[in-house]
Amino acid sequence: MAIAKREPTSSGYDLGPQEFTGSQMVWEALLREGVDLVFGHPGGAILPAYDALAEYEGDGRIHHVLVRHEQCAAHMADGYARATGRVGVCVATSGPGATNLVTGLATAQMDSVPVVAITGQVPTNLLGTDAFQESDVVGVTQPVCKHNYLVTEIEELPLVMKEAFYIAREGRPGVVLVDICKDVQIATGTFRYDFDINLPGFEPWPEVTVESVQEAAALLNDADRPLILAGHGIHLSDTSRELLQLVEKAGIPVVTTLLGTGNIPETHPLSLGMGGMHGEAFANRAVQACDVLLAMGMRFDDRITGRLDRFAADAKVIHFELDRAEVGKNIVPDVAVIGDLAETLPAFLPLIRERQHKDWVATLDEWRAETDEADIIQYEVEELIPPYVIRQLWHATEKTDQRVIVVTDVGQHQMWESQYYIHEQAGMLLTSGGLGTMGYALPAALGAQMADPQALVWCVAGDGGFQMTLQELATIQQEKLPVKVAIINNGFLGMVRQWQQIFYDKRYVGTPVLSPDYVKLADAYGIPGAVVRHPSEVVPVLEQAHATEGPFLVDFQVKEEINVYPMVAPGAAVDELIRRPKPGYVQGYSGVQPSW
Amino acid sequence: MQYTLVAWMRDKPGVLNRVSGMLRRRNFNIDSLQVSHSETPGISRMTFVVDGDERVAEQVVKQLRKVVDVTAVEDITNRLAILRELALIRVRTTPETRGEIMQFAEIYRAQIVDVNAENLVVQAVGTEDKVDSLIELLRPFGIDEMVRTGRVALCRGDERPKRRKQATAIFKAAASLNGNGRGEQE
After folding, report:
1. B149 to chain A nearest CA, in Å?
2. Which of A364, A385, A540, B40 has the fewest beta carbons closer than 10 A?
């Protein structure tokens, strides 16, 4: 689903001077930014703002979602933002409220998600006195924010609010926090919203140089074995259509990053799926063997590059990137094309020769075929294994006409989802890629569902991560959201256990994890659920979940010690990978012919 | 090698913290950092000495540019520039050594800015090398206390930063903003 990239300031509101309290100004600014939904938790220092919210909630202009923990307010705003491309907003009080936000803000910032956080602060006369519920929120959040503000005077507030949204949204998106002293919320001042933003140090959309695009085109046109490595930037700039045009015109295979999943349909013959630590062998081999690597909207994270000095060692690298600072940070490209992909890709396309790269694609298909036989699990299972669950989830959601959003947590199930779910569109998968935040899935799924009430939203989480934020089941019920929850329950912190098995001689320290009876737990919140223990139960239960109108929780009690393969050990080159064990003797595969 | 970077930034509360926090977080190695006013009200000027290779220096410049309050950054390492540091050095004296110390100071065109029975304060201005070498000369006499400003830098006439023009426009915009832009709402 295409998302609106740059959301215009909502018109229809008076932008000229009006008298308001600071609290009213916060909501008035939100209205002018087109925000009608906030996720938050009240407390002493933000109480004046909440008091003023009554008026805006009363007439339905702004809806407030009460969270059960502020971390989840940030994750919900993040999920909302990823699902819509608009700025997500979360609200918290001073001190513990604000510090609880930090994990969620860091998650959003790492993945370039536009979020504005509004926090209350102790009154200005108490600043710096270690007052009750005081913490230096601007100091604490500075490293995880694109920018942040402490507002100590009512006169600053309107401009700060406008700048906050502008900075969060424009250029590479990110997190902006506005910390507002309680006395400022109470004070009255003149509110206006018609100023021009004047931020001389902020260069959100660098000018594209024609030469860089030409140079990149020349390099690509001469390539024999070109490869595209497509990241989150494609989705953020809404250019998956242009990417597909490029791919088909020039016959270039595509590997994606985790957050670039679905940038081109994974059923496309030139799609190699995800690369990196848990990418398929042929995808990583392609990266190592290409002669020109076209990196688009990605930042060469260590999880995609593996050992840097051996990453695509023979390739010339072209880096399309909006954020200058990402160019040359990990990989020094031969050609850098700096600018918005929405500008650079359309300029690049006409300069690219039509080609097919038959030999190269044939080689890749050979590798893929080898991998298919040796690696991809295609066997009927006797025990319940996660890849089977995920593949069946795909089959089940494939049939629906609804927009499908899958939100994953962090760990083994996250990797299985990216491997076995077939993503047809960018933005179908929401996950915490950069920070790897356990507990992300449930609240982010809520945010995504709030953003698109008609969508079919699946939260896929492990038993470890789910237990970090499961209190938000209450929020699901309070908001009457039809979020479907799949818990891939293997009794372990699975990915950590996998590392312990492979790198720490199977010493499972701190990884066996006890779970409650999730169906009973869901029932306590009034949410129906089911347990699945055998493969034969998967499809009927998924059908039951889809047939249920509201939320539904499924506890998939899967085989315990299953690993994610292939795997590139940290610090190894991406083609030095640990392959999947052959079927038949490990992991419960019987070796009979596939039925899925 | 050492790189000299100059950054201009909006003179707002916490801006030094934003910059130094970023440098620490990104694990950059900074030899010295000096902050002062610039010629434009509302704009501060920072001079950094960065230890590293070209790639590190380039990353520091790029990351500095990402700090919203930083309005311009220049790497002036390869420009003809006046590089200076000021040091105040309190040196122990005896009637026998005072003359020699003053002679050394004179050779370095340093000034004696405070004298009492036990010590005197030498004020030295010059490149870090020059200041270093004076300090080494004075060390045997006993240095009681010392303060150095860190490097400040200004390009020579023809070598003024190329972004200067743009930077000037930025300064004007920033000055108007800092001067009374926000006050207008009152």
Report:
1. 26
2. A540
Average pLDDT, rounded, for chain A: 93
- More confidently predicted of A399 and A548: A548
- The pLDDT value recorded for residue A47 is 98
Q: CATH assignment of A18-191?
A: 3.40.50.970
Give B176's contacts in chain A (Cβ within 8 Å).
198
Q: Which residues of B touch A325 (CB under 8 A)?
A: 59, 62-63, 65-66
Q: Which residue has the tokens 């890629």?
A: A433
Is residue A415 part of the annotated active site? The answer reads no
pLDDT at A357: 96
Residues of chain A with CATH 3.40.50.970: 18-191, 376-564
Q: Which CATH architecture has domain A376-564?
A: 3-Layer(aba) Sandwich (3.40)
Measure the N-to-C terminal CA separation of chain B; round to a whole number of Å: 51
Across the strands, what pairs with B87?
A: B124, B148
Q: What is the pLDDT of residues A266-315, one digit of tens each?
A: 999 999 999 999 998 899 999 999 999 999 999 999 999 999 999 999 99
Q: Which domains does chain B have, with CATH numbers?
A: 1-78 (3.30.70.260), 81-148 (3.30.70.1150)
Q: Mean per-residue pLDDT for A228-257?
A: 97
Which two structure tokens, joined as six digits, stand for A478? 């309070």
Picking from A15, A20, A142 by the largest number of B CB atoms within 10 A of its own CB, the best residue to mutate is A142
State whether residue B16 sits within 8 Å of chain A by CB: no
Looking at the domain A210-370, which fold is it?
Answer: Rossmann fold (3.40.50)
Check if A133 is active-site.
Answer: yes
**ipTM, interface predicted TM-score of the complex:** 0.90
Q: Which residue has the tokens 């109108």?
A: A549
Q: How far apart are CA A79 and CA A450, in angstroms?
A: 9
The one catalytic residue in A24, A25, A33, A70 is A70
pLDDT at A404 over 90: yes
Locate CATH 3.40.50.1220 in chain A.
210-370
Which residue spans within chain B are E strands per DSSP?
2-10, 30-37, 43-51, 70-75, 81-92, 111-115, 119-126, 143-148, 152-155
